[in-house]
Amino acid sequence: MQSPKTPSLRRERIGILVLCASAAVAMSPAVGGGARDRSTALAAELAERGVAAAAGDVVWVDPPRGGLRPFGTDARAVVRGARGVRAGGERGEPTDLYLVDARLSPEGVLLDVSAIHNLTETSGADESKPVLRGEALAYVSRPLIEAASPTVHVLELDGQQLSGGADWSLVERLQHAVTSWQATGRLRGIGRRTFAIDLARSEENGAEEPGAEESGAEAPRSRRGPDAGDVAVALEDDSAVVVRAGGREARLPVRGVDDAALPAWIRAEASEVARPGNLVTWAVDRVRLVIGDAAMQTVKAVAFTALDFVLRNKEAVTGDTGAEDIAADLGQSELDPPVRQIPIDPEIGWPPARLEPWVTPPLPGEGQWNPQGGDAFVRQLDGLPPAFMTTFLRTDRSRKATRVYIALWDPRQVELHMMAGTVEPKGATGEAGPGLIPRTPEVMKRVVAASNAGFQAMHGEFGMMADGVMYLPPKPYAATVAVRRDGSTVFGSWSEDETVPEWMLSFRQNMTVMVEDEKWNPFGRTWWGGTPPGWADKTHTVRTGICLTRERFVAYFYGADVSPEALAQAMIQARCSYGIALDMNAGHSGLEFYRVAPSGELPPLGRPLQGEWETEGDVSGLSGYRFRGRRLIRGMGLMNFPRYIRREARDFFYMTLRHLLPGPPLAPRAAPAVAGEGAWRTQGLPQHGFPYALALTEIRPDPARPDVRLRVLKVDPRTVAAAPLGEPGAPPPAGAGATVAVFSDGAATPGAGQGEGSSIWHSAGSFSASPTSPVRGAVRIATGALGSARAVAALGVNDEDGMLIYVERAAAGPSSAPDAALAPDASAPPTAPADPRDAKLLQDFLAGLGCSSRIYLPRPLSVALGGDTDLAGAAVHPPSGPRAVRLTRAEAPGAGRMFESTPIVPHSVWYPLQQKRVRYFKKPKKEETAGGDP
């Protein structure tokens, strides 16, 4: 029978064991050189592990808990430190913040350090000592490189809120948890909010108060912030952070900041988490962190080499030409027979001539351009040919089944944009990008395509800037595609001068140029990604590229199983004057087409979607809009389809249609409709190039007065330059283009009873309405009244596309022109007699065209198209006098070269410069510069 003292004895024994364990803990040797102060001990222990830190830079999140805790207590600390030490004891790298998991004795002695996680990993910034309130921590990243803005960061140590992940699958949530655990040691991760300090932006915009900018707009951002040492941060409590910079102060909520109005001098990084990749690519990245990048490159190289051996021998045995697989990629059962190539329009030079096949005999349709546009998936500009063309080429004569698909676009119609992802590339001060195409109707309904960009930052830290925000600085001699502030796309090799020109809005770099002037690898590079150091780079895998062609068009290349030489040969066959290799590997590389419109306005498809490469859905973050998307080819392995229409972790390119003439026709209003009524005419006008500068039409706007015709002229501000005419007969100024039109309002002034006057001005490729000159150098086009009481003509600026619209009443009577019933009649008087009802008619007409900026004229403008023809088609002398203005042809945004003076230099020059890492500031060893690329 059990003794009644047994429970008591057990308690005593347990107590003795606890006391012994406590004594053992107390007597166990402490880490950190035996220092009793836990901060000093932790700094010493970190130094042993390669992180230099001072005791004063240790912030303890969890204090000692005391009491009888036989095995000590877990405690967290955030430490400001740096890895590496230079000669002389100087710190080797910029400081980062490290989250340390430690164990303390009841008295607070450091017993052990179990894990160290770098929370910041900024590539070119020093972190300040953090401030802590509860589970909220804040600090400042101060940039060490030019053109980067200081940033304020707020971390939530108690876990990350998975905003934007409501529709994630269970597998995706598990992926995110594992990724968070690898990065922070916690399945919930750590919440993070980033605010960039940009005082120059608010000064440029003239706005200082919260709410000065419309919510959701993604305006171009300036490059320079305040002095980094002038930024300070404090936490009032665990829910509010106070930022002070340049004599200004802002109080920001730690949570829910997306819904808060921010001052103009602060921009917030998006807090929504991007969806993880598919299991294969995600697993590769997870394993890479464990075994290292070099080991992962070896694994991939072995696998791809084995696959290449199998496929090469398969083709040798079967004689496979790739025709069956190409047909499947194009969504066909077999390749269509070749058809007549769309003829080149001599006025605009588009589309270009077909491509010469490299492998013979060619397959049906190989090298022939196929238009993409005007259908259910790709929008086409009204009155213009499709802006996109696609084709395929086989460019490996030893493996005839391998192929490269090409998407070509006309950069005069299509504008290229760059978007930084929410993870890649991580900015110099820790600022990541929005990872999202701007959610405004003006942008979204003009989006036509998006594609991958370059390598991850770990594979070379090649430069990137997007919308004026510097994420990684440029590298000398790196192949670069850039966007000018006027919207032009330019290509070139960066010089040794790392200064970013003022005209540059965005840029992306990747390695050295692959093809220049239709020649392969002028810089003698031996490594193009996918192989470890010292291996011959013959890997066949997914590779992509982008190039400027000889005709100044832009092409994107996608090959599912190609070598670097095969990708380069495709560029050469496409007549590339400058070609850049982009990202590689399936899952991360590809191009998608999109068509976005308000709900109910997408054109009918007429068949079910083919889910493996077609999709449709709501546009997240923009209520009332839907998209339809399609991959470039059916067999493209790009993950998370549709990828770029949602928030994305990696940086990418996206393309939008420009605002060009002629635009959609005006809908006839008077019955019965007359042939050609409202259709814009561009042919036969003094365009002097493409895009068109002028468009002309006539329309009857009043069903109750079908005899009233309005003559309407549109002018694209991006295609013209304006200057006062000067003396009668004076030629255009030196350097000016051909004359597009001459305008004069004579001695026009606002008439009595018409209200206050205003003017239309032209400057820097735009029209605007203002009583006085809006900017220095603006040229006045015409002056009129803001009211329409006695108007017989009017001018307006379209709110959406910026086109100038001039409208006047035409004379009544039939037209004698042979091409259209309402074309200009040279025998008719230029204008009709004034009618009191015309003023209201002009006002309603311009308002209906979307012109909120309008002026009204008491007499018509004197207009001479080309300097010698009026709007009715009659020959005239050009207007003269002090109020006459000449519009001459200007080069519109398109594509071209930059940095053409950058020389081709040997490997020994460019390689050491590109090896310098922003983060590590290390110089290459001599043996590295003598060998191949890493």
Automatic annotation (TrEMBL):
Tagged with keyword Signal: yes
Ranges annotated as biased composition (Low complexity): 816-829
Entry keyword set: Signal
Residues in coiled coil: none
Signal peptide coordinates: 1-26
Keyword Signal on entry: yes
Region (Disordered): 201-228, 816-837
Top-level taxon of origin: Bacteria
Amino acid composition bias (Acidic residues), ranges on this chain: 205-216
Name assigned to this protein: Secreted protein
Species the sequence originates in: Sorangium cellulosum (strain So ce56)
